[in-house]
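Figure caption, in words: inputs first, then the predicted bound structure.
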Amino acid sequence: MIVSIIASPRRDGFGTMLAHAIGESAEAAGAEVREYRLNDMRSYRQCQNCSACKENGGTCVLKDDISPIIDDIRDADGIVFSTSINFNDMDGLFKMVLDRLYCFLDANATTIMPKGKKIAIVVTAGADDAGANRVATDLEKVMTQHFFCESVGRIAYCTWMMPAGMPIDDDVLGRAREIGRMLA
Ligand SMILES: Cc1cc2nc3c(=O)[nH]c(=O)nc-3n(C[C@H](O)[C@H](O)[C@H](O)COP(=O)(O)O)c2cc1C
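Bound structure (flavin mononucleotide present):
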C-alpha cells in the first residue's frame, strides 16, 4: 500500500497532478494508493514533544485528522510526498504532518518505523527552482537518514506562477510515471 500526501490546497494544481501521475502509475503496476489531501483536514495539532510515544512503543497520543495518516504510514510500502514552496519552505500543514512522524523515533532517536519504505518527493515552486530542490533534499534527508526510507525519485517543478489546471510538460509527467512504477 502506498500513502500519497498532497499538501497543495489547489485540487487541480501541479503538485496534485504530479502526485496523481505517480499514484496512477503505481496503481497500474498493482499497488493500492491511499490519498490524503492535507487541505481537507479540519482537526490537527502539532507534535507536542510530550515524549509519550517514547514510553508507549511509538503511538502518538494525539487523536486528530493526522492520526490515520500516521497509522497508514506505519503499514505502507511506499509514500508520495507532494508539497509546494511557501515563503522558501515546505507548506505549513505538510511540516506539521512531517513533525508528527517523531513518534517513529524511540528514546534513543532510533527509528521504529519499519525500514526500507520507498519514497517519492514532489516539490513545486512558483519561481524558486533552487528552493524546490533544497526542500526536496531536506525532506529526502529526514526520511532516509532518520527513517531509513529508500528514495526512488524526486521532482522539483517550477510552475512560473501558472494558474492551476495548465498542462504539465510531457517529459515531467513521464518522469512521474516512471517514479510511480519504481514505487509499486
Ligand atoms: C503563501 C505562499 C507563499 C509562496 N512562496 C513562494 C516562494 O517563496 N517561492 C516560490 O517560488 N513560490 C512561492 N509561492 C508559489 C507556490 O509555490 C506555487 O504557487 C505552488 O508551488 C504551485 O503549486 P500547486 O499548483 O501544486 O498549488 C508561494 C505561494 C503561496 C500561497
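The helical segments are 14-28, 52-55, 67-75, 92-100, 129-146, 170-183.
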